[in-house]
């Protein structure tokens, strides 16, 4: 059984089908890849199409270098169909526990499944995180997470605060600007920014070359190039990190912001940088600097949790302190249990998903087989 019908679940299932097995994917949404289908409108891949195809099926040649949200969804839909992946939609797994030599999966509707092998592929972006600030309950404007944001059409002429400084925050702020809003970005922590391309070459290609070196040494080698392309982020009001992009991934598990125009807008003042939030007011927020601003809406681009502790009955030896699997794409400490798509590499998540799915396929095929039964 495979839990999750996004890229990781589909890729793992396809790999097992090619190995002569008959996996079943359980997906809580009404369609496959629900998260991709409902991302904000302007979303494009941050990894180029050449390294973003799943095993056995490159992305179409007519796609642009960085495919759009709808193109990625169309690709995933075609991939699942052409690879013969069996998917049960609107089937949300509530609990997963070990019982004898089987894994028992119980859905929110009360259905129960048993399987010798279970792959959990629900992904890093599963449960939106909205932090709580003092007096947040008195704020009279709109509060939403970036997972709920679609486009800036409804925010024209409005003052909107985007909280966070990852890729979603940068793109949402640009989208608001394009729709005539007045966006601000609240950045609490030191941040690393890298260009998406350098002279037309995807930055992730450079990351693949640099990944053969220790992170700090690789960051030292790339520092002059980043200064020449991105410049000093502190000039734009962004707290400067004391480490480079590869060290950040190793240190925090978070990808640096891939700049597609956010830094230029910050430097010009079209997007205004703000420090962290101290507390809310009825009409806006007071920042840690003591300054206050009114806002019509607040968009929290503050990331996600895996939510795995809600599914797994016993997480000891499986998850780290942040709720991420200790092993992704490899055998875990529990027989028959695998995770796919929970590693954030510097060379692209979809590429890593493909590699993990193939490893899991080999491991499961090496066992007796995938036994699935409806209890």
Name the CATH architecture of the largest domain: 3-Layer(bba) Sandwich
By DSSP (H or I, 4+ residues per run), the number of helices equals 10
Instruction: Summarize the biggest pleated sheet.
Output: 5 strands, parallel
Q: Which CATH class of the largest domain applies here?
A: Alpha Beta
Q: What's the Cα radius of gyration?
A: 22 Å
From the spread of the alpha carbons, the general shape counts as globular
Oligomeric state of the chains present here: single chain
The helix content, as a percent range, equals 25-40%
Please, what is the average pLDDT?
91
Strand tally is: 23
Bin the strand percentage.
15-25%
Low-confidence stretches: 370-375
CATH topology-level fold name of the largest domain: FAD/NAD(P)-binding domain
How would you describe the overall organization of this protein?
- The chain is globular, with a radius of gyration of 22 Å.
- The chain contains 10 helices and 23 strands.
- Helix 1 (about 5-20) links the parallel strand 1 (about 1-5) and strand 2.
- The chain has helices at about 5-20, 35, 70-80, 165-180, 205-210, 215-230, 245-250, 260-270, 310, 350-365; strands at about 1-5, 25, 85-90, 95-100, 100-105, 110-115, 120, 125-130, 140-145, 160-165, 180-185, 195, 195-200, 200, 255-260, 270-275, 275-280, 285, 290-295, 295-300, 305, 335-340, 370-375.
- The strands form 7 sheets. A 5-stranded parallel sheet has the order 3-2-1-7-22, with helices on one face. It has a 5-stranded parallel sheet with strand order 9-20-10-11-16. Strands 4-5-6-23 form a 4-stranded antiparallel sheet, with no helix packed on it.
- The protein has about 375 residues and is of the alpha/beta class.
- The longest helix is centred in the last third of the chain and has 17 residues, at about 350-365.
